[in-house]
Every structure is written in structure tokens, then in C-alpha cells.
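can u pls check wat happens w/ 3-phosphoglyceric acid
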Amino acid sequence: MSNEAKQRRVESTLALAPVVPVVIIDDASRAVGMARALVAGGVPAIEVTLRTPAALDAVRAIAAEVEGAVVGVGTVLTAKDLDAALKAGAQFAVSPGSSPRLLDAADDCELPLLPGAATASEAMALLERGYRFQKFFPAMPAGGPKLVGAWASPLPQIRFCPTGGISLANAPDFLALPNVACVGGSWLTPADKLAAGDVAGIEALAREAAQLKR
Ligand code: 3PG
């Protein structure tokens, strides 16, 4: 797939819902129920972060069993992570920032990457490599809606998915911006609800998030 085709794939993934749930999962056996709840609630693009040993098993299970889910792998830091994500059946990858080595690996990998930027210089360096879609991370500590909004005029080619410190309450401030495609956040899959297998609770959080306007 060409880099431009990968960008189009990212574009259609980010268009699926106003929020991409960012998941930290400890027990892979909870993955399918959780993902079905998210899909049923209207947020089908799901980022499972590589922050736990269960993450890749969770991705494999979701990719194999959950109809309608578009599962991605987050916290991708290295070429090895990217390869593991692809082999697990992920449809996209997300990184908190970018490094030249990771970007070189992404050029040679079929998996579309959504790399992170937190400054105008980082966003420009990614744009030079063809990334019109970028994660803005960590969104709130880095400057929140004011910072990403300030990039709309000088960097109109780039659409961002802000994540980091986003909630149902502050998501509208980002979604109102012309250069924000959607937001990401872990609030839809809280650790207590995941551990308890509270799929009804997760579906309710997803439903609320899916109704956010953009
Ligand atoms: C991410 O990787 O995008 C963040 O960890 C999600 O941030 P949050 O937990 O503040 O939503």
C-alpha cells in the first residue's frame, strides 16, 4: 500500500466516530466483550495499547471475533512493535511520538500509522514524510485545544486526533476545531469496568461518546 493509501485508510478510520477509545487491558479474556460493547455503543475504531502483556492477545481476539470493530495497536514505539501489531491482525497503529527509525519501519510496513506530535516542528517533520493525520499527544499537558487550534491556520493540511487528558467534558472543545478529526481517550474503558466485565457500563460510556458533535 502506498503512503497516500495508508493516509486514506487512517482518514476513514478516524471518521468512524468522534472518539477512539484508548484501551489498557490486563486480561485478554475481557477483550471481545469490551469490543462488542464499544461497537454496539457506536465507537468501532479501538486502540489497544501495548502497555500490558495481554495487549496482543486482546488484539488477536478482537480482530478474529468482533464484527464491525476496527482494531488498532497503540503505544507502538519500535519496528518490532509495528510488526507484532500487523501479525496480530491490527488495522492501524498509533505511536505517542515519532522517531526516524519508527517512521522508516512504517514506510516498509503495510499497517497505516498515526504518529504523535506535540509541537509545530514535530507536526511539520511528519507532514514532510506524508503524514496528514497525526495524533496530538499529550493533548492537555501540551497545551490543549488552544495549542492544536493555533495550528489550524499555519498547518491547514494536517488533521489531528488529540489524546491525553481528554474527557466527555472537554472533548467538545477539541471537536469544534476545524483541524481535529476526532479525539482519543481511556475514559470509555475504565480499569474497574474492564476488570468487572461491566460491558453494559462500557456500552453506556461509548454511547455517550458517540453522540458528541464534531
Ligand atoms: C494515550 O495513549 O493516548 C493516552 O494514554 C490516553 O490518555 P488518557 O488516559 O488521558 O485518556
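The first strand starts at residue 19 and ends at 23.
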